[in-house]
Design brief:
About 45% of the residues lie in helices and about 15% in strands. It is an alpha+beta fold. Keywords: Flavoprotein, Oxidoreductase.
């Protein structure tokens, strides 16, 4: 039994790369290979070749650099459509979109020439980019602390050394946006732009996760990687990275980035839950136990259980629609509200898939049925920063005025 291939998108005007037939073709292509990618954990090179051919890798790149200049509603539609079919590909693309958003912001501290180079590489070659932030000892920098990845000055520029975990898409990236610190006293922290093919980079193929197996989120080790001086694209005193620090324009950019991240990750995991729901509908229509003499879809208790899933998915859509509308009106929600959006949509997506599993029983855990894959994939939504404990604690402090 196969799940439907097409994610039914909310209606929206056609735009570059968003013609329904383009998304239908790509969704069918990705869905056809999803089970094999899950089994092998191989990087989805063919998927990204197809996405580049359709102009979707550079969808968010500003028009003046050759991209489509798409906004959040269009990016959400693409991520949701692809995630319904193969969510690891959608996750890697999401991370690239978030970097392209930052490159296009007028207040970016990056040198203009490097911003343009990364953007035009995406347009010309479909080059992917992602941030590398997590470390064995530091964990996620969103929880504070100085990174152990260190850049030391020499006569030519910088030498970067360190160790990063969970480098999503590392096998297919062209550019690495690496979080590190300088060896100065006091140190500065920030971002170093590193070409993936620079000498001194070793990929440790350690990614063997339960879900999103094709995301290729392996480790990267940097051993005195030589970088030009200008590739330290954004270095600041550590305190200047704290929430609420920086100019009003920088705080607005941060809120915008958090809103995009919450919406795109939320859309991704919501799409996984919808794929699970779609498979479940076909299963219930076809499964007719001999003791019943009719399909499971005929039972009133089935209708009620499905209604619970529909309520969760509708709540997701309302939350995502509301956040997109706020962003496109030029008023992105505060970062704390974006965190709550991510928490709520992720939790409801997981609950929807768990309810689907409960309704179909052992059939849902059978490897040749996709529901068990959807369950493994949707659980990965919990690990993305900001994580729920931090989000809820921040919301509680805000409610108390602390």
């Amino acid at each position: 039994m196969n799940a439907p291939l097409l994610y039914r998108l909310p209606s929206a005007p056609a735009a570059a790369g968003l013609h329904p037939t383009v998304l239908a073709r790509l969704t069918a292509l990705l869905a056809g290979g999803a089970a094999a990618l899950d089994a092998s954990g191989a990087f989805p090179h063919a998927n990204f070749a197809a996405l580049h051919e359709a102009g979707l890798v550079a969808l968010v790149v500003p028009r003046h650099w050759g991209g489509a200049g798409a906004g959040l509603s269009q990016a959400r539609r693409v991520v949701a459509a692809l995630a319904h079919a193969e969510p690891a590909t959608a996750l890697i693309l999401t991370m690239t979109y978030l970097q392209h958003l930052a490159l296009g912001h007028e207040g970016s501290r990056w040198p203009l020439a490097l911003r343009e180079r990364v953007a035009r590489d995406a347009v010309r070659d479909g080059a992917l980019v992602n941030a590398l932030r997590v470390e064995p000892l530091l964990g996620s920098p969103s929880r504070g602390g100085l990174p152990d990845t260190v850049a030391r000055r020499d006569a030519q520029g910088w030498q970067l050394s360190g160790h990063k975990l969970y480098c999503t898409g590392i096998e297919g990236l062209r550019w690495l946006v690496v979080w590190g610190r300088t060896d100065e006293a006091p140190p500065r922290t920030g971002v170093f732009l590193v070409p993936r093919d620079a000498p001194g980079i070793t990929i440790v193929r350690s990614w063997d996760h339960l879900g999103l197996r094709a995301s290729g989120s392996h480790e990267a080790v940097f051993d005195k990687v030589a970088l030009p001086l200008e590739n330290a694209v954004d270095l600041r005193a550590p305190a200047d990275w704290a929430p609420g620090a920086g100019s009003a324009a920088e705080q607005q950019a941060q809120a915008l980035h958090q809103a995009w991240m919450a919406v795109l990750l939320g859309a991704l995991y919501d799409a996984v839950a919808r794929a699970a729901r779609d498979w479940l509908l076909e299963f219930l229509r076809q499964r007719a136990p001999g003791s019943l003499g009719a399909p499971l879809a005929s039972l009133p208790r089935t209708h009620e259980a499905l209604g619970e899933i529909e309520a969760l998915l509708r709540h997701n859509r309302v939350l995502l629609d509301d956040a997109v509308a706020a962003v496109e009106c030029g008023e992105p929600p505060p970062a704390a509200d974006s965190g709550l959006l991510k928490h709520s949509v992720t939790a409801q997506s997981i609950e929807a898939v768990e309810r689907a599993l409960k309704l179909c029983g052992n059939h849902g855990l059978t490897r040749h049925n996709p529901l068990q894959r959807h369950l493994r994939d949707v659980l990965c939504g919990r690990v993305h920063a900001p994580q729920s404990d931090a989000v809820l604690a921040a919301a509680g402090r805000r409610a108390l005025g602390l």
